[in-house]
Write a structure and sequence with these properties.
This protein has 14 helices and no strands. It has about 280 residues and is mainly α. Helix 12 packs antiparallel against helix 14 and helix 13 runs antiparallel to helix 14.
Length: about 280
């Protein structure tokens, strides 16, 4: 993996952990997604205009379909993640989602993008699965239901795997400019969630009045957590990019346990470290 690709994905991982902590702290719903997405479209508009003027992209039907599909997948991810944060622990939901995502991303990359998985990659996947099971309490004989944290984490992870492979094809094969792909996703969220935001405008004003700094942090760091990844995927295989993003798992577990008072820091950090070891196996394969 090139140094440039490594640096882009590592920076994105730090940004991803940052905005997730603020989302959990605010504890909002679809109205919060609409609010920070709207602010993101305003803040990143000059960059989007610059890309259009410099690269002068012309989109055909296939590219438009992939742009719309990406927006839909990302919206689904945000909604599932928000519900998970409202019903579970950040330091359980987030690692489960971030560990499941690269496994599926790699599988989709093999099936649809022609990438090759080595034995070391498979070993890394096994370590990740084990770490996730232990982080979320393991398999307990006689347990009748899976925790909400695990269910929402797996749902978000499935969407992560789907949009990662989908977007990789969009930027590396269809040559859609990465920043415009992410910007279109923000516009899609603003448009589709507008009716809900209108009904919850009082709650939205409350978010803005009480958590203005947090909302701005999310609006800035959310695109920064993915645009560098999209650029990295234009010259780096998904099988390397997707796992490396999971450096954010350890950062988020620490934030959830220490800053948000979810506790169990030693136990959770230990298994988050195991997940990180699995990521290292994948990245160095």
């Amino acid at each position: 993996m090139s140094l440039a690709g490594f640096a882009l994905v590592l920076a994105a991982a730090v940004c991803h952990a940052t905005w997730n902590v603020f989302v959990k702290r605010i504890n909002g719903g679809p109205e919060l997604i609409w609010l920070f997405s709207l602010i993101s479209t305003v803040l990143y508009l000059p960059l989007a205009i610059g890309i259009i003027l410099v690269e002068r992209p012309v989109f055909d039907l296939q590219q438009i379909i992939f742009i719309l599909g990406s927006a839909a997948l990302h919206l689904g991810y945000f909604l599932v993640l928000q519900m998970g944060y409202r019903n579970g622990d950040l330091s359980l939901v987030y690692p489960t989602a971030r560990a499941t995502g690269p496994l599926l991303s790699t599988s989709f990359a093999v099936l649809f993008l022609g990438e090759i998985v080595t034995g070391q990659m498979a070993l890394g996947a096994g370590v990740i699965i084990f770490g996730v099971l232990m982080l979320t309490g393991g398999i307990r004989p006689g347990a009748r239901q899976v925790s909400a944290s695990l269910l929402f984490g797996l749902g978000a992870g499935t969407l992560i795997g789907s949009y990662t492979a989908w977007d990789a094809y969009a930027v590396s094969v269809l040559l859609i400019p990465p920043l415009l792909l992410d910007y279109a996703s923000s516009i899609g969220r603003v448009a589709l969630l507008a009716p809900i935001a209108h009904r919850r405008r009082a709650l939205m004003r409350q978010h803005w009045n009480e958590h203005r700094t947090g909302v701005l942090v999310i609006a800035i760091f959310n695109p920064l957590a993915y645009i560098p990844v999209l650029y990295a995927m234009t010259f780096t295989q998904v099988a390397y990019v997707a796992p490396l993003r999971e450096v954010s798992v350890v950062l988020t577990v620490l934030a959830g346990s220490l800053l948000l008072g979810e506790g169990h820091v030693r136990q959770r950090l230990t298994w988050a470290g195991v997940i990180l070891v699995g990521m290292v196996f994948l990245v160095t394969a």
